[in-house]
Specification:
The complex is a heterodimer of chains A (about 250) and B (about 230). Chain A has ten helices and no strands. In chain A, helix 2 (about 50-90) packs parallel to helix 8 (about 205-220), helix 5 runs antiparallel to helix 10 (about 235-250) and helix 7 runs antiparallel to helix 10 (about 235-250). Chain A is an all-alpha fold and about 250 residues long. With about 230 residues, chain B is mainly alpha-helical. In chain B, helix 3 (about 65-80) runs antiparallel to helix 8, helix 4 (about 85-95) packs across helix 5 and helix 5 (about 100-125) runs antiparallel to helix 10 (about 195-215). The longest helix of chain B has about 35 residues, at about 10-45. Chain B starts with 8 loop residues before the first helix and ends in a 12-residue tail after the last helix. Classes of the chains: A mainly alpha (about 250), B mainly alpha (about 230).
Chain lengths: ~250, ~230
């Protein structure tokens, strides 16, 4: 009977929905427990605006569920499809150009980066590194954003090149951190905190799955490459290189 | 550029829409519920009522027990909920053929963040210089890199960057800034941001440690498609 099969279909969908939402709820449970424990036991305070908090939590659970579903059916296949496509065409220039654009494009519009560079311009203005005017601060913030975006683009180019060549990652990363440590000694102190911070803000929630799928996809289709050994590591490059570029930016300006 | 559309373009686009919608709801919900509460709690925990009056001779690090505990607990909890980490650990489980479990990896990263944030708050309280901790940390990372299975190394390095993301950064930054403003003589610009550096350093160690524990990574010789 068509009605019955439709009903069992709806039932299966509802069960799937509950499974997804249950998973998200489990992911968020530690936060809820930690906040509840400290609020009730340690601080002994009532919850301010409990209704707003509960409705916010519902949004968080639903949002996380949608995100995880979308990863499996959208972002991962997209990143892998790209990797397979480029590997099939065998066009190295196109692949590296794509890697650069992916890094630059996703970073330049990153809200966290916009916030950090605006704050950095404010600090530079009051410290006297640049003229304390609206337009000078705007220029500084934009230059900083472009620097970080360029750094992430360059990092993905290097990272993809590493996957193709199969170079071991540790020499590049440890060498990179040695450069950061040396440059820290020479850079103006005001820029150091911003530089270290810019490494963390670039790897956004949208970029990470796409870049991971691209790296793992490339390592899977290229003969002689191991997905675990060669496919991961792009994020590590993308969080390291902005530190170097921003430190250099602070030394030049 | 590729001219050929991916085989399931429509499905992929639907998935992309899910991701965007999910992330938007996630962030709106966090803004409404968690971030303000996290900031209020960070401020309350570092207030005079909880830690007592800071003496002129400088703070006694033993008065800040609840701050370390909160730092560790909230660092752990926010990392478990970090969507970018969920994505990377799902991929890692798939590629290791199940030798590394996604859940185990997430817990390992979260433990690393917990230790990192607790130690970072301790550093702010004692006012010891950040570079010493970070350089010592990198020395440990280098030693572990030599000892760990080669297949876990890239994943461990990645997890350092992945953790400092949507959920963890605002809450941990609020804790750092609250702590800095509660202790006289600390500079918000220099001391407030160090916590993120700790939170991205320690997961590198804990992930390598986790791999040594389960013996994963070694067996991930090629994944399911090799």
């Amino acid at each position: 009977m068509p009605g019955q099969s439709r009903r069992s279909h709806a039932f299966a969908m509802a069960r799937g929905l509950f499974r997804v939402l249950g998973g998200s709820f489990r992911d968020l449970l530690p936060i809820i427990l930690v906040i509840a424990f400290f609020q009730i036991v340690v601080l002994r305070q009532p919850f301010p605006d409990l209704e707003k908090i509960l409705s916010g939590l519902v949004l968080v659970v639903v949002g996380l569920g949608l995100f995880v579903q979308g990863l499996e059916i959208g972002l991962f296949p997209l990143g892998e499809g790209m990797a397979h496509g480029f590997a099939r065409k065998g066009n190295l220039t196109a692949l590296l150009a794509f890697a650069f654009c992916l890094g630059f494009g996703t970073t330049v519009a990153e809200p966290a980066l916009i916030a950090v560079s605006a704050k950095a311009a404010e600090v530079a203005g009051t410290a006297g590194a640049i003229a304390d005017t609206e337009s000078a601060r705007g220029t500084y913030a934009l230059q900083l954003r472009l620097t970080v975006a360029f750094a992430v683009g360059a990092a993905l180019v290097l990272g993809v090149f590493r996957i193709l060549k199969g170079w071991p990652i540790q020499y590049l990363i440890i060498g990179g951190y040695a450069v950061v440590v040396i440059m820290t000694g020479f850079a103006p102190p005001e820029i150091v905190g911003i530089a270290y911070d810019s490494g963390g803000v670039t790897t956004s929630t949208l970029t990470v799955p796409l870049v991971t799928a691209l790296g793992v996809g490339l390592a899977t289709v290229i003969r002689g490459r191991n997905p675990l050994l060669d496919g991961f590591g792009l994020i590590a490059f993308a969080s390291l290189s902005p530190m170097i570029f921003v430190l250099a930016f602070g030394m030049i300006l | 550029m590729l001219r050929r559309a991916p085989p399931n373009l429509r499905r992929a686009l639907v998935g992309f829409a899910y991701v965007l919608a999910g992330l938007t709801l996630f962030l709106v919900g966090l803004e409404a519920a968690l971030f303000p509460l996290g900031e209020i709690m960070a401020r309350q925990l570092t207030s005079v009522d909880v830690i007592g009056e800071v003496s002129a001779a400088g703070p006694d690090w033993r008065d800040f027990g609840w701050v370390y505990a909160f730092g560790a607990a909230i660092g752990f909890a926010t990392t478990v909920a970090e969507p970018a980490l969920i994505a990377v650990s799902l991929k890692a489980e798939e590629m290791s053929g199940g030798a590394l479990s996604a859940w185990g990896l997430r817990v390992a990263v979260a433990v690393g963040v917990a230790v990192g944030v607790a130690l970072g708050t301790f550093r702010i309280v004692t006012g010891t210089p950040l570079p010493y901790y970070i350089m010592a940390g990198y020395a440990v990372v280098i030693v572990l890199t030599w000892r760990a299975a080669k297949t876990i190394v890239p994943l461990a390095y990645d997890s350092g960057g992945v953790t400092t993301s949507t959920v963890t950064v605002p809450v941990v930054t609020a804790l750092g800034l609250g702590l800095v403003s509660a202790i006289p003589g600390r500079n918000p610009l220099i001391d407030g941001f160090g916590l993120i550096a700790f939170a991205s350093l320690f997961p590198i160690m804990s992930v390598m440690g986790y791999a040594m524990l389960v013996g994963g990574g070694k067996r991930g010789g090629g994944g399911p498609r090799a």
